[in-house]
DNA sequence: GAGCACTGC
């Protein structure tokens, strides 16, 4: 991921903290003025009164209303941090937690990490003096495993709750319990009540209000500038064409200002980029001042940061983006948004264990979020590439993630907290019974649960402590027995990050050739292992050649760094569990047998026609073209991921001997007669 | 022959 780089670029946007005193006081004055101009400033008194009166308060306000940076300071001033208590503010994303903490510290004129700090995975910027703590939802969930009453907090603010990520949903459910437990003074400890504030941009607060027993909701004023919404008269035949035409229509007819275009994926983005570049060549010199830029998550971070640089004088930027630009990154200077009306969305079929990635219509909430990317600094326009009557037909909001994902990890976490009745658990939106049953069965087969669905000791406890997919945790536990823990730690660290390799459309061949020396005939897991090990050797030699090496091999350096951080973290975890991190040396047979024993539920066998049959679901599948085994087609493989896009694909494979399955997992596979 | 976006002390 791009986080390291993006962090630096975000920090660089801030005024220089070492500036002279005069400019510093000017800066403070400016900040004070800015704060007063925010819609939320006028409601400080009322808001604090509501927090004091209500144990749960829902605050509705669009992004940009200033609620996120101001509310923590209101709470501090109102005395919620007395007696060494903290106010915790959660965000769905790491970068947001970090940059909001930056901003709050700056506005409070304190050093980051002192009174105001943040905690995210791999990066703890807090101290014993921290009173306002920004963090990811996931971080607070992990913290709740250690301190179930969250006793250090007087208030928890859950921001961006409308996004309805799995972590936010689970967190809200747990916070409801924590609040009740603290009131009833359970566990014989005296703990003061917990205040809960839920912030949401959704138009409809009733979901949260009802969930918290009719909790009070207050609204804070919306955005400062007007945004014109324009629709097409008729449905467009091809939104890629329509987007392309609209870009040039804006460029020739509208005032200066950059354009942000929402498309569905890398290929679409790269093809529009190529079309724009080609068309520009044919235009007269004075009409050529349009600069196409692209951004999507698999793009290496150093390339992602290009979209933030201002366009050269007289030029207009046109940024072609996936929904990464909907929430994760904010690009200054955007005056025009083009909304294709489509998004690539993930769903999950628990009965077959298949993830799918489909291009689907956006929801109304998503369309609003997209148009909300303008109107922050100046008035703007949003061009929706569909008629208004089509907008009216869109679903109100995107289905909460918890209803379209594999629940194994969520359930493992709840079990670790002593919550055993999953079907009866009070989710905001209940996942289907089928999805719950499937996940329970999977956890049982992986050895995390006993046959009466209790957390197994010690395996289930160990697995719940590891911040990994349960399959990966099982692989580590088994690797301890197969004496290949060192190799498996690297493997699961690499599998845990997305897009280790970077494959631009136009250089696909070059990218693949540059990486052939990593390729291992036995499969992708060993290939990842050699990528990691080669980067290891490199680091021992000299640090600064790493970037070049990544570039030359089309390796995403941000992803690799994340994998390295993950490795360090999980290595510490398994060492704490008393595992001995030993290497199998050159005995890759044991390593592959360990993979077979770990991923036995994800095995596939070649058929006569060259396709594969997934043994567990019986589905006919194909090897994904990115696999090193794409051409060799071994008889039997284990795989990491089962995803349906244009076909049903299995990804990240390793060749195994099918006899191993019956030998290593006799409770699940019987030996063929 | 091809990968929306996030996250975990």
From TrEMBL:
It catalyses: ATP + H2O = ADP + phosphate + H(+). Residues 246-418 form the Helicase C-terminal domain. It holds the Pfam family HA2_C. GO terms for molecular function: ATP binding; hydrolase activity; RNA helicase activity. Its EC number is 3.6.4.13. Residues 48-221 form the Helicase ATP-binding domain. Residues 1-35 are annotated as: Disordered. GO terms for biological process: mRNA processing. Keywords: ATP-binding, Helicase, Hydrolase, mRNA processing, Nucleotide-binding. It is an enzyme of class 3 (hydrolase). InterPro entries: DEAD-box_helicase_OB_fold (IPR011709), DEAD/DEAH_box_helicase_dom (IPR011545), DNA/RNA_helicase_DEAH_CS (IPR002464), HA2_WH (IPR048333), Helicase-assoc_dom (IPR007502), Helicase_ATP-bd (IPR014001), Helicase_C-like (IPR001650), P-loop_NTPase (IPR027417). GO terms for cellular component: nucleolus. This is RNA helicase. It comes from Eruca vesicaria subsp. sativa.
């Amino acid at each position: 991921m791009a986080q390291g780089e993006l962090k630096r670029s975000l920090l660089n946007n801030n005024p220089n903290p070492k500036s002279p005193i005069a400019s510093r006081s000017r800066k403070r004055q400016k900040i004070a003025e800015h704060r007063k101009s925010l819609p939320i400033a006028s409601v400080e008194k009322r808001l604090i009164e509501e927090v004091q009166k209500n144990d749960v308060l829902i605050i509705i306000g669009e992004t940009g209303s200033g609620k996120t940076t101001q509310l923590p300071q209101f709470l501090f001033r109102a005395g919620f941090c007395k007696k060494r208590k903290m106010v915790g503010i959660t965000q769905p994303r790491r970068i947001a937690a970090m940059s909001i903490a930056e901003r709050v510290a700056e506005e409070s004129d304190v050093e980051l990490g002192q009174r105001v700090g943040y905690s995210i995975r791999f990066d703890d910027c807090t101290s014993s003096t921290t009173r306002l703590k920004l963090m990811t939802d996931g971080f607070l969930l992990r913290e709740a495993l250690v301190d179930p009453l969250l006793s250090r907090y007087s208030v928890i603010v859950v921001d961006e709750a409308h996004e309805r990520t799995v972590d936010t949903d689970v967190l809200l459910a747990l916070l409801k319990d924590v609040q009740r437990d603290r009131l009833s003074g359970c566990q014989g400890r005296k703990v003061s009540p917990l205040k809960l504030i839920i912030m949401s941009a959704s138009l409809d607060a009733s979901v949260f209000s009802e969930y918290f027993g009719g909790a009070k909701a207050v609204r804070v004023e919306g955005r400062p500038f007007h945004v014109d919404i324009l629709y097409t008269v008729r449905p467009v035949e091809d939104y890629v064409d329509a987007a392309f035409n609209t870009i040039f229509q804006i460029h020739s007819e509208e005032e200066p200002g950059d354009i942000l275009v929402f498309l569905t994926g890398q290929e679409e983005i790269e093809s529009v980029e190529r079309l724009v570049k080609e068309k520009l060549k044919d235009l007269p010199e004075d009409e050529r001042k349009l600069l196409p830029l692209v951004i999507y998550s698999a793009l290496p971070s150093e390339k992602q940061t290009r979209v933030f640089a201002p366009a050269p004088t007289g030029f207009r930027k046109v940024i072609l983006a996936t929904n990464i630009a909907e929430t994760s990154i904010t690009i200054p200077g955007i005056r025009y948004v083009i909304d294709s009306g489509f998004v690539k969305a993930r769903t999950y079929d628990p009965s077959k264990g298949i993830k799918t990635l489909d291009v689907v219509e956006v929801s109304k909430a998503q369309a609003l979020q997209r148009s909300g990317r303008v109107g922050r600094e100046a008035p703007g326009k949003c061009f929706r590439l569909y008629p208004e009557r089509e907008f009216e037909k869109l679903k109100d909001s995107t289905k909460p993630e918890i209803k379209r994902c594999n629940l194994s990890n969520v359930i493992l976490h709840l079990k670790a907290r002593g919550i055993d009745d999953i079907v009866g658990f009070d989710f905001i939106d209940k996942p289907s019974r089928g999805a719950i049953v499937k996940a329970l069965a999977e956890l049982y087969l992986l050895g995390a649960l006993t046959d009466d669905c209790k957390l197994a000791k010690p395996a289930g406890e160990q697995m719940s402590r590891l911040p990994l997919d349960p399959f990966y945790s099982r692989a580590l536990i088994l690797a301890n027995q197969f004496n290949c823990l060192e190799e498996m730690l690297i493997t699961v660290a690499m599998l845990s990050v997305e897009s280790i390799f970077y494959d631009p459309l136009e250089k696909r061949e070059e990218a693949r050739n540059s990486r052939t020396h990593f390729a291992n005939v036995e499969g992708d897991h060993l290939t990842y292992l050699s990528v990691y090990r080669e980067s290891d050797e490199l680091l021992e030699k000299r640090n600064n050649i790493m970037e070049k090496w990544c570039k030359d091999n089309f390796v995403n350096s941000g992803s690799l760094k994340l994998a390295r951080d993950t490795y360090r973290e999980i290595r510490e975890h398994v060492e704490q569990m008393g595992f001995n991190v030993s290497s199998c040396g050159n005995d890759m047979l044991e390593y592959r047998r360990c993979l077979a024993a770990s991923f036995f539920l994800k095995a596939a066998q070649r058929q006569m026609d060259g396709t594969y049959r997934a043994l567990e679901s019986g589905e006919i599948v194909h090897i994904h073209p990115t696999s090193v085994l794409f051409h060799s087609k071994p008889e039997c493989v284990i795989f990491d991921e089962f995803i349906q896009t244009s076909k049903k694909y299995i990804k990240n494979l390793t060749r195994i001997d099918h006899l191993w399955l019956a030998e290593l997992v006799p409770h699940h596979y019987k030996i063929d007669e």
